[in-house]
Amino acid sequence: MGEKQPAAKRPARRTVLTGAAVAAAAAAVPLTLRAVGGDGAATPAPARTAPAAPVASRPASTASPLPRTDPRPNILLVVTDDQPRETDWAVRRTADWLGGQGVTFARAHANTPLCAPSRATIMSGRYAHHHGVLDTRHPYHLDQHTTVQRRLHEAGYRTGLFGKYLNYWHTGDDPPHFDEWLLQEPVAYYDGHYNDNGTVRNIPGYNTHVIRDRALAFIDRSRTDTRPWFAYVATRSAHELNIPERRYAHARVPEWPGRPSVHEGDKSDKPPFLRNAKHTYDQGKALRGRQLRTLLSVDDAMRDLRDELRALGQLENTLVLFTSDHGLCWADHGWLRKSVPYRPSLEVPFWLSWPARGLGGGTVDDRLTGHVDIAPTLLDAAGLTPDTPHDGHSLLDTRNDRDRLLAEWWWNRQDQEPIHTWATHIGRSSQYTEYYRTRLDGQGRPTRGDGAVLFREFYDLAADPYQLTNRLHGATAAQEAALGIPELAKGLAAARRG
Predict the structure, then answer these.
(1) pTM, two decimal places
(2) Collapsing DSSP states into helix, strand and coil, what is residue 102?
(3) Cα-based torsion angle of the residue sequence 110, 350, 169, 50 in order, rounded to the nearest 10 degrees
């Protein structure tokens, strides 16, 4: 898998100190009113409702599984929300399992650092400018025929979705190509609003536990259903507003001095909107602590999923892939969100384990990796040839590599201030970014503006990993030529078209 290295030494195992419980901050959503979407807009009232009831309990079956005749692997895809790379402390057992007994992709990136576009890329293997979901308000732009779940389902896989699907998906609409689902929209930490296999209802409990229990029940049904399965598990953690499980509400997290990009003094070489960003180290530190506390429950859920696979004898021949939809800035360059072309916003945790294929040795793969690679990898594992175009490639084939990876983002209705649309080419040791005068219209299409280049950045990632010095700030034409900017600009333009 590319150039493999011994797994890096991991942080010390966490110690959790818990205190007084906190009250749940999310009340049940009335079923007779319009639900509020994940970004504040109303969605149509669900077509089917039912009284609140507990979710199905975790499986307690002890029956011996029926023998498997289909050699294809099971696939467990776990996607967290807004989880940056530097969060291993909170998911220690997950890192020990999937990193220590799998492959750590050390240079994994979101291709669009925004929830719905990123998830559409994960499902389709396509850049956002190809799948068309450019913001969080238009999930129905995704062509469902292009999704990995469609291909797996038609090839005989039992498919299940548990948790977050796409922002602004109408709660009463069933997600295509899944045999079972517990879809939550809008997404809340406690007492959420779910589409439970076609019935919309409130379910009490903590989001991570509710979806874990349904995923466990789905997996446990393989005792009597011998088809290979695909489970897509998507937690609320670690998205703001962060509400930890009550027992972790006061967990003590490791001290954090902040990265150099958090303490950046001179931002005159940054784009205008970022020069005005004023978030502080204290705000970034607080956000980090809240995120880590919510992720402690994700680590517990991953332990339970691993134990279930072991009990079923399926641990060896299950491909497990764990990642996040994108990263998040902890006041880097004064920014406290995603949506910017900087490493904390783009880089994500990314572990893959499949012992039966030999991916269980605890190696590090340093290939440039993106969410566009997930769907091709899963189809390759299942022995399936893609029947729709992919922009990514299978990570199972060590010959697949790239010199540059595209990431892109569009200025949309959520942002009143002019952040501007951007595209960036991430290389092995450098990164080139362009900002454009383009904005999405009310239908989520990039029709507003003339597309002119407004600002550019170039960072030497080897010498300047925290992206403090924009080498194009005040650069002459000769200096730009020495950096290879004309060729980089042509390559970025081709990637945006291709």
Answers:
(1) 0.88
(2) coil
(3) -160
Cross-strand bridge partners of residue 421: 436
Contact (CB, 8 A) for 280 and 234: no
Q: How far is CA 361 from CA 98, 137, 390, in A?
A: 10, 41, 29
Q: How confident is the model at residue 61 (pLDDT cuts 50, 70, 90)?
A: low
Distance CA 446, CA 227 (A): 42
Contact between residue 404 and residue 426 where contact means Cβ atoms under 8 Å apart: yes
- As a whole number of angstroms, the distance between CA 416 and CA 486 comes to 32
Query: Residue 395 CA to chain centroid, in angstroms?
Result: 17
- In angstroms, the CA 162 to CA 152 distance is 16
Say how many C-beta atoms besides its own lie within 10 A of residue 250's C-beta. Answer: 15
The β-bridge partners of 180 are: 160
- Three-state DSSP class for 51? coil
> The tokens of 104 are what?
């750590």
- Give CA–CA dist 376/382, Å, rounded: 10
**Beta-bridge partners for 436:** 421, 453
Q: What's the pLDDT at 267? A: 97
- The set of residues, in sequence order, having a beta carbon less than 8 Å from that of 434 and lying 6+ positions away, is 422, 423, 424, 453, 455, 456, 489, 492
Task: Specify the higher pLDDT residue, 420 or 443.
Answer: 443
Residue count of the chain, please give it.
Answer: 498
Question: What tokens appear for 428 in the block?
Answer: 């092995």
DSSP letter assigned to residue 265: -
Do 214 and 56 meet the contact criterion of CB atoms below 8 Å apart? yes
Query: pLDDT tens-digit profile of 173-193?
Result: 999 999 999 999 988 999 999
Percent of the chain with pLDDT over 70: 88
The 3-state secondary structure of 448-464, one letter per residue = ECCCCEEEEEEEECCCC
Q: Among 140, 109, 145, 151, which residue's Cα sits nearest to residue 127? A: 109
Of 87, 105, 41, whose CA–CA distance to 239 is shortest?
87
**pLDDT value of residue 417:** 75
Cα(76)–Cα(353) distance, integer angstroms: 10
For the chain, the farthest-separated pair of C-alpha atoms sits apart, in whole angstroms, at: 72
Distance of CA 409 to the CA centre of its chain: 15
Sign of torsion over alpha carbons 488, 329, 262, 106: negative
Instruction: Give the Cβ contact number of residue 335 at 10 Å.
Output: 24
Beta strands in 158-307 (DSSP E): 158-163, 180-184, 190-196, 199-206, 229-234
Task: Evaluate whether 432 touches 425 at the Cβ level (below 8 Å).
Answer: yes
Distance CA 12, CA 72 (A): 36
